[in-house]
Amino acid sequence: MEILRNVVVLVHLVGFAVLFGAWVVEAVARRVRVTPLMNYALVISLVTGLALSAPWGLDHDLNYAKIGIKLVVLLVIGALLGIGSARQKRTGSLSPAIFWPIGILTLLNAGLAVIWR
Ligand code: HEM
What we know:
single chain; mainly alpha; 4 helices; 79% helix; binds protoporphyrin IX containing FE
């Protein structure tokens, strides 16, 4: 059970790595845009995060205040990705006010995960 939980944590980390990595690639190339890979990675983070929110394969209590905040942050990232890709399709460009918070909020969620125990 514990090994299975660790595998789900690993897949959760892959979701984070792909979401943040996909965003960094665009930021470093100075392309203010969202990509489909970000959506897939967000879904991976959500599904595995929800699976990890159930208390199985654990010897400690879960921090549900932290989990709740992470879920809200993820929903905001999802909304930004949705609004961003719709605007991008319509106008061909994306406002930095949508692009930057996507990376910052992703990093915030990873920070919450590892710093707030
Ligand atoms: C962009 C979104 C997210 C990012 C970047 C993220 C990041 C992380 C990271 C880096 C860890 C590993 C922490 C560690 O083991 O030291 C983690 C664990 C975890 N995450 Fe997320 N996460 C995200 C979304 C979510 C969501 C939406 C939920 C639940 C609704 C969630 C629930 C959890 C749980 C329960 C753990 C394991 C905590 C434990 O076993 O003690 N995460 N997350």
